């Protein structure tokens, strides 16, 4: 009788599983929950959102113009009227920083977007098809990587000539190797996943495998990388402008403003202080947001 | 066997190149599967057993062309799969499916169960679009889940349930052959039994053929009709489940069977301890690949590669690849090495 | 191991080929005729043509490239447009200044980065850890030219501790090295920390604890050695970044190094000099990375040595 | 309970992990004895808490885990009362541990010799020369060929089986009284597993130590253990000597496990699985943890947790069926013999 009992109860359709009753969060909710846990990352995220809004709305709220020259009030120290003081031409630094926000964010987002558009497909093709195509692409990437740091961007700008658009392109090219390498790595890892084999065994085409099953796996490292790359893109772009190879005066670009301030560092340090501080805040926001994203998206750190 | 031959593997070789040297050329090969032949009949379960590195999983993947084999033929339903181009092969895949070991890695975490199953049907276009929803509900019930599970994500299921979803995906295209690659190895005993029973049930109901790849001899004994024993890329013994388990002929099979711990404290047996580890498949031993560890090895084993063959006293279809099968059976050929000592100090340090 | 090193050296060939090609194209993609640049804007057509012939500008591009590489291999980088002196002579005195700056900064960043990273990892989430990591984040987020300006403003101008410009004396070295080394220190600190935390959760650390090893020894002997292996790679990359970063630092502190030479030459459209500087910095970077890769392989015994 | 003297008595051990989702009681009131010189098997499926129990004995639980209470008496003294310093003297000296993954459990940057010598240095203050001598003896003892050569090799130069032998040599270096083996052969092939299990058995006889063998494999239990504690969801549900457990299992979970097991030594027509799955920590049943999957469960089982009670012959069961309060089918006790595996 007892035996009978056991057998009856093991009917398969009866595997009415208790685990089902508790709703577990979906991957996105889970991600948001993990992001929310990271206070710093949230601050970074909100800062980016706030700065983006300021870059669009800010200019409409200000009474002054970034190129209003006021020779009488030049070199005035920070005050109630000029929060961050005025520069050597009497232009209001605060106004210029607010107007400059969109250039900084624009170069950051723009170059990383361009870099990703070029780097991600290269990485996927290299990782998915392997063999000669892979070797060829990776050799190209190696060549790009042989120019360290700001040097490649500098070389490109020296060909294209100094302008904000050219800086964006230069920094984008400089970002390609990073994306290609990361994507290649995750593609290689994703290719080995059993569910990718399962879908191949079902007779799926390469395109479907790449777009539906590999790309989503690649997306989170790409997003994390992109966020952190925006930070370094902004630094590089500012550096180029500081060297006079990027945005040209009188554009209120922060790197260019620092270049202006450099000449007066002995007498009016604040001219250089505020644009630099602005860069630090923006870059910091992207860095901590990127860190938080990585923690939230990295399954290794789960639990 | 009166049933027709569904799968016929002939001289299958799967080598993986090792790049090295100064120019990164292929300097050597991992001979994962080295010239094996066997047949699987419709409706039967053939198990491939062996220890890690013996080539059993590689065999399964090569048959499905998940990796492209180096050489040989794989005839499925009379068609040599290795002659097919990419497109023809994709069509062919409808008839042959695979279930994997890791229930966590074998489902796309971003797809709900419904999306997973619907995609499978869409790829092979097996069920008319409007009927797919019903088919999904039906499949889920078949594998012991409920229709309302369709809209859940894999992480909402336990390991055993995921394995059921994997089975449902394989069944969704109505295949003839399913390769089960360690399909129950990652599951706990109590769950493993559920899945094994399920697989047996489907075989009866749908006349499925299984190529069951496993290292667990208990599971193999339970599920198989016939068993193939592999060692270092070669088949060392093949035969009926009964003959293999009760009358093993190859010294490796004997050692393997004797090594399994039996859940019965009174079970007493003479254990054969093999010396050392499995050699590297890059430079496999000459002659019989097992000779470096075989208790019965002689000079002949080092030089001559034994072929699979039968002997008069063996059951029909039972074959072993050993020069001395008969003589060992009759007791005329005695062990040339110690088999009861686990401290093998005389062994030469292996090359790594 | 020897095979590995030789293979890596062979892999260097396509990279060096690509680098020289890119640098070569730099001059040829740039709008404007080099001969015109040399001759000046008012030069006659015949002068320009004469210069073109003497520079081989009328040869087919592949021929020009081969000539370029052959010359470069003999350290002949041509003549500066500006001064008409051999480029190599322009570079030589400045080269060591830049190398000194980069090497000192790398040493500083390794020293500070390692200590900060280890101290952080040992007590994860302690006040000490959080403080160090916040400082590191700031260090990573600062434009180094701005940091340089600020340091100059505070320590040179307001406090008068260090001279604001130049290179050579011990006091002149301090500010540029801090300026250039800060970001590297931050990156190395973060890397060391995460690598340490990664290692501490490994099975063999548990084994050491199960043996009764003192926690201090678990961390400094069992964990640290393993944790430093991936840090080596970062150090190599940092050296390259610092080398390129000299462009900005040298500009800020008016140091007459290679970096500043690049900028001045770009401004003056003196391309032979630009070419040579970029080529030299890249080749040094590639070689340093090769050395780092090889030492990484030596350290990481798990990597196949074939 | 047993007539033998116990070397280790664990009473009401509780270890929890404090995660975002709340407290996970991985080990929830575990009690068992290890008789001196014998082998105790702790068997259970994944999530049963068997490995956490092992780690708790040596207090190797790290953040966010915490030993919340109970007693771990080793040779009469409670290990939980010891300071970290005193505990270190016990680890690797009187109680040693070997782990599941021989591939990752050795430090990749130190040689085999350095790692074995370290034990001698910590616990016996031996220098390099004497340590090496002892290390070679140990390597010989565990059957490693050319031990002098192996001493200077790195773990990556050894095969999985050899590494596990090195782990054993390291663990037994100071001749401990108790060896805790946490799934020591799970990652190994079956022919290598046979070698390692036999080796542990032989060394146990030679050194006269006690062993706690943690495993999910009932075959390994039957072959190596004298006593068995069956764990389910952080609790011991049955404790018996090995023959009683396999010949006359009493807890419905133990019975279910044995009936689920495909056997290599004989043919079975049908396997009888346990229905359902192990409950997740956030929905642990309030009553008997096994009640939702138990074919005999009554309301009592669902509502109240049974205690681990002696049922005679040194056997302990955590099940209402074997108490006076049992209000379900009285037949289950009567039909007892039919539920054995030898039916």
UniProtKB/TrEMBL annotation, chain B:
From the record, give the transmembrane residue ranges: none
Residues of the ABC transporter domain: 7-257
* GO molecular function per UniProt: ATP binding; ATP hydrolysis activity
The answer to whether keyword Glycoprotein applies is no
Q: Where is this region: Disordered?
A: 331-352
Read off the SMART domains from this record. Answer: AAA
Q: Name one GO biological process term.
A: peptide transport
Q: Which keywords appear in this protein's UniProt record, sorted alphabetically?
A: ATP-binding, Nucleotide-binding, Transport
What InterPro entries has UniProt attached to this entry? AAA+_ATPase, ABC_transp_ATP-bind, ABC_transporter-like_ATP-bd, ABC_transporter-like_CS, Oligopep_ABC_C, P-loop_NTPase
Q: Which residues form a coiled coil?
A: none
Q: Which family does it belong to?
A: Belongs to the ABC transporter superfamily.
Protein name in the entry: Dipeptide ABC transporter ATP-binding protein
From TrEMBL, chain C:
- One GO CC term, this protein: plasma membrane
GO BP, one annotated term: transmembrane transport
- The stretch of residues making up the signal peptide is none
Q: Could you list this entry's UniProt keywords, alphabetically sorted.
A: Cell membrane, Membrane, Transmembrane, Transmembrane helix, Transport
Q: Where is the ABC transmembrane type-1 domain?
A: 95-292
Q: Where in the cell is it found?
A: Cell membrane
Write down the superkingdom of origin: Bacteria
Q: Provide the topology term for how it sits in the membrane.
A: Multi-pass membrane protein
Q: Which PROSITE patterns match?
A: ABC_TM1 (PS50928)
Any transmembrane segments, and where?
A: 12-30, 101-122, 134-157, 169-189, 227-253, 273-299
The Swiss-Prot or TrEMBL record describes its family as follows: Belongs to the binding-protein-dependent transport system permease family.
Q: Which protein, by its recorded name, is this? A: ABC transporter permease
What organism, scientifically named, is this protein from?
Answer: Allobacillus salarius
Automatic annotation (TrEMBL), chain D:
Primary localization class, coarse: membrane
Kindly list the places in or outside the cell where this protein is found, as annotated in its UniProt entry: Cell membrane
Q: What are the protein's UniProt keywords?
A: ATP-binding, Cell membrane, Membrane, Nucleotide-binding, Transport
Give GO terms for biological process: peptide transport
Q: How does it sit in the membrane?
A: Peripheral membrane protein
Q: Which GO terms describe its cellular component?
A: plasma membrane
Q: Does the keyword Transport apply?
A: yes
Superkingdom, taxonomy of origin: Bacteria
Q: Which residues form the ABC transporter domain?
A: 8-258
GO terms (molecular function) for this protein are: ATP binding; ATP hydrolysis activity
* Family per similarity comment: Belongs to the ABC transporter superfamily.
Listed NCBIfam families: oligo_HPY
Q: What is this protein called?
A: ABC transporter ATP-binding protein
